[in-house]
Amino acid sequence: MRKEVSLKDILIIMQRAFNAMDQRLLDHGEKVAYILLNLLRQHGSYSEEEMIKLCTLAVFHDIGAYKVAERDKLLEIDSIKPINHAVYGSLFIKYFSPIGDLSNAVLGHHFTAKYLKEHKITNIPDEALLLGLADYISLIQLKSGKIDKNRVESKYVEYTLENINLFLEVSKKVDFNTTLNNDIYKKELYAFFDTKNVNKDEIIKYTKMLTYAIDFRSEATVRHTIVVEAVSYQIAKLYGFADETCNTIRIAAMLHDIGKIAIPVNILEKPGKLTENEFEKMKDHVSIGYKILSNLDIDDIRDIAMAHHEKLDGMGYPFGLKGDEISNEARIVAVGDIFSALLGVRSYKNEFSKDKIIMILKNMSENNKIDAKIVDLVIKNYDSIIEEIKEETDSLIKIYENMKDEYNELLKDLK
């Protein structure tokens, strides 16, 4: 039996995925989380659970930058203003993460104490200034390779004297210049996250958070993944798998295209047929996903997710698996992937009719490409599966629409 999944496992997967998307923010979130952890410990009034949630938030505090193309601005150390990425990031955390109650800390992490007071902003928690200070310290280290205490100390107006004193006291115990420059901080930070086991619902929420983050690059890919998840989960239940296995298949389905986070957008969003070279690059998403999910004691999930382009006759990729080498769980996700593609939720192609979809699935099963038993389950339960898909996608679209409206309103109010 696979060991319990810890928060460390989840965060490593997510960090690998974001690093694959863009190297410019490499390790910044983890460094901010490490600095914040030490500030919170020095503060002494936060519980272990509160510190875990706040440090998890810190890892992804700049997640909005992947959407609004402000990554270059984030490297401007003294950029203190209501930046768009903080607004979008706060909404993403609010709607698509298990720590949505902390979203306003992300919203306000580029504000100063003076700014908040002058503009009479009251919905930003104290933790936003602590997060902002940790962010500022990390950026100094990133830009110069060394943290100048005097430079930090001069920022007491921006981050409050109390918070600056926390840093100065922590610095007597922790040599940040050594820990941050030699990756010691990663071992300490992830040892802290490893103390927190995540339950089934939390795993699904974090996985969805990562899945929806791919929308920063391709909304079509996210819509496709939502459909694959819904179809695979329904098939797994119809197949008669136990609840635990059904949830494993569901998580694998959510992660099956995680490697696309590193595929060029012009390929992901191309409306027409891919060229041979483009198709070869697209195929890389499986091997990229395999690397992201490896060495985390979740090989069962990885192997189900990354076999979705394998074929029973051995003509699939990336491993050329055939027959019994492909598990029933992986066969389900493979059918879910094809079914979603035929429904037309990616590459902006037209949706096929029910009869045509059934005909294509039958032909593929008869030609030993996909599992005939699974195809039969899909055909017999076609209408109920479609109904489930509609419910899932309609809910997602509604959230996105609300987010866009709220984003524009927040920007208007803050600026």
From TrEMBL:
Residue span, HD-GYP domain: 199-394
Pfam families: HD, HD_5
Biological source species: Clostridium weizhouense
Protein name: HD domain-containing protein
Record-linked Gene3D superfamilies: Hypothetical protein af1432
Source organism superkingdom: Bacteria
SUPFAM superfamilies given in the database record: HD-domain/PDEase-like
UniProt-listed InterPro entries: HD/PDEase_dom (IPR003607), HD_domain (IPR006674), HD_GYP_dom (IPR037522), HDIG_dom (IPR006675)
PANTHER family to which the protein is assigned, alphabetical: CYCLIC DI-GMP PHOSPHODIESTERASE PA4108-RELATED (PTHR43155)
